Hints:
Blueprint: H1 2-7, H2 10-21, H3 27-34, E1 43-44, E2 52-53, H4 54-65, H5 73-84, H6 111-127, H7 148-161, H8 172-184, H9 188-201, H10 207-219, H11 227-239, H12 255-266
Amino acid sequence: MGYVVAHGDDIDRARLTWLTAGRMPSVDALERVESGQTGSGGWPALSDSRVPSVDATCFRLGEIDDLGAIGRPAARQALAWLASVQQPDGRWEEDPSIAAQAPSWAQPGDPEAGLYLTARAAFWLAVSGPPPGATPAWGTSVEPNDHVDAVRLAAEAFTASLGPEGSWPSYLATGWFGGALLYHLGLYYESAQVQVALTDRVPEMSASDAAALGAAMGRVGMSAEDWLLTAVRRRLGQTQRTDGGWDSDDGPAFDVHATLTAIRTLR
Length: 267
């Protein structure tokens, strides 16, 4: 927490306050995070582009969720846009027009990238509503998830890609988003297969990968005492720097973001 306070900006500190104390940020802070949204509802990968990106939109939704604002109109519009660009087979791909700007993990036409975007987009559509079968507390109501059909179709596409031992033909992050998605849907056997494969890799994960894995699984309600999250906490303990922060795989400019993700996992 001290590292974020010392090295983060106003938005980073607002995320810290929400994650640790549950206090909503100012409207100004929320509007700054939501800025740049296209008319269709997604966010572009580059500030000078008007073509929304699946990957960039999911990243922005993660920031907004860290501010407790996933229910605000900007996030709801982004989620509706994600659902609208899902392909008939349940998958997502980036728009071909941004292929030159898209990173290697989000290249249009690449099956690995497509499965990653599918797991990540479906994860955010899933956690935007209540878990399946949720019952309201006395005197309250449970808001429906507007994207339940899109989520289930994506889960079917992800499950169909799994190998017999729970392996997946894509990047490491695809595993934790897909495993969290299946857990959220109550597909515990299929999710457990993925979790076993992830747990085997935790001891060699980078700090930011371990943090992101833990944050995704925690977001869908996995117990902190689960064996996978226990392994993640152990890895974060091994990789924390003496200044309190964690290294990002994307370079020092993103160390505060990696640290906030670790705090989300550990809180």
